[in-house]
Amino acid sequence: MRSANTIMKSTIKIFFSGMLLAPLFCFSQLNSPYSRFGVGNALPQASISNRGMGGISAAMSDVASLNFVNPASYGSLMYTNLDVGIEYNGNNLKSKEPVGNFRSNYGIISYLGIGVPLLTNNKKAIKNKTSWTLAFGLKPVTRISYKTLNTNWNGMDSVTTLYEGSGGVNEAFIGSALKIKNFSFGFNTGYLFGEKDYSSRIFFKNDTVSYYSANYENKTRFGGLFLNAGIQYEIPIKEGKVKLGAYGNLKGNYNGSHDQVIETFAYDNYGQPTQIDSVRKISGEKGTVTLPATYGVGFAVEKKHLLFGADFSTSQWNDYSFFGQKDNVQNSWMFKTGIQYYPASNNSTGYFNFVKYRAGFSVGQDYINVDNSLPLYNVSVGGGFPLKIKHSYYDRQYSVMNVTVEYGTRGNKNNNITESMFKVAIGFSLSDVWFIRPKYQ
């Protein structure tokens, strides 16, 4: 049998190989014109299990899964945990003027993470009810993906403009949490990196005069260190406990490099754009991208069969700037509430008694401030399905498949363009107890 050290080394190798190969397993046909603004569409940061409860995260913690939103939750981890989430997203875009309807879809890896309790077998720590945990991983934060076509006609000439954009923001993080009795404090730090690639291709059409097509393209890469932290506190109550939590992400200034090109071009025989002449070219222009602070608070009431809670968070997007330029963004907020039912009792035997059933709802205001502002609505249902039911205290493996189905909208009747989003997300929390030296009598 392989030792715990060997198993861990193998798992870490698999984890980092997965991070390097992750882009190969993502497919993208998303077309969201709103992702043109700021740093793109904000992606859910909650774990798949918490998203089933509307995304509540501030006060949520578990002995065998990771909650990246509030790093204080790591202090409750009792098992070494490998957490991975994937999701499919189907978007439906509707426009009033001009009247139109466009469907798109994409799949991504939502997150990859590992959590390792460091005081699992420490007798002094157990006596003092103290735990210390290390976690690290990789997750996307925002996504830019759009492609729109606009044609104008002045009676003589027509001008068609193709707008395209891609990119987004990602985080590679390492975090830690210390829990002493009922109080837990934790932090995440690491490297935030992002890119924005925007282009506008202009095509002229005239019956008598031939015009070259023009391309205006901007590429920006930026990155730097980030820091966020959180706290949690548990209050014992009859047959359960109340959890309180708060977290915050600091405003960050990230160094960037900007390239710009203005050129005329033509398409070759293979349909690829080929430069004819360069009108303007800038390479490696230095600048700063400022991303806002985010704050969140919440509570959760946990009893034997029932858990419910609520969160409120806000982000200060009025502080955002991109190479000294403001954008159509505003301070955003989100309210989330959710519930979980767990029917199992001491005498339960049927598999579905060990499934955790979840539902939730969230409402808020998007940070992108165009088209009369954009309200957000989201409902979710889900479940935690154990891959193996524990039969004894000595059965140390605890692995769960979390499934969440969500339906959300961005915009309402006051907006010209509205988006509806249908998401199916699957997460795997694979846990075991490592670093315990066997003893024989």
Share in β-strands: over 45%
The helix count comes to: 3
**Structure summary, number of beta strands:** 19
- How many domains make up the coordinates? 1
Question: Could you tell me the radius of gyration in angstroms?
Answer: 25 Å
| CATH-assigned homologous superfamily | Outer membrane protein transport protein (OMPP1/FadL/TodX)
Average of the residue pLDDT scores: 85
**Distance N to C terminus:** 20 Å
| Fold-level CATH name | Porin
Roughly what percent helix? under 10%
List segments where confidence is low: pLDDT < 50 over at least 5 consecutive residues: 1-25
Report on the biggest sheet. Answer: 14 strands, antiparallel, barrel
| Side-by-side strand order of the widest sheet | 3-4-5-6-7-8-9-12-13-15-16-17-18-19
**Order of H and E elements:** HEEHEEHEEEEEEEEEEEEEEE
Oligomer: single chain
Structural class: mainly beta
Mind telling me the CATH class?
Mainly Beta
Structural account:
The protein has 441 residues and is mainly beta. It has one domain (4-432): Outer membrane protein transport protein (OMPP1/FadL/TodX) (Porin). Helices cover 6% and strands 59% of the residues. It contains three helices and 19 strands. β8 (213-237) and β9 (240-249) form a beta hairpin. The radius of gyration is 25 Å and the shape is elongated. The two termini are 20 Å apart.
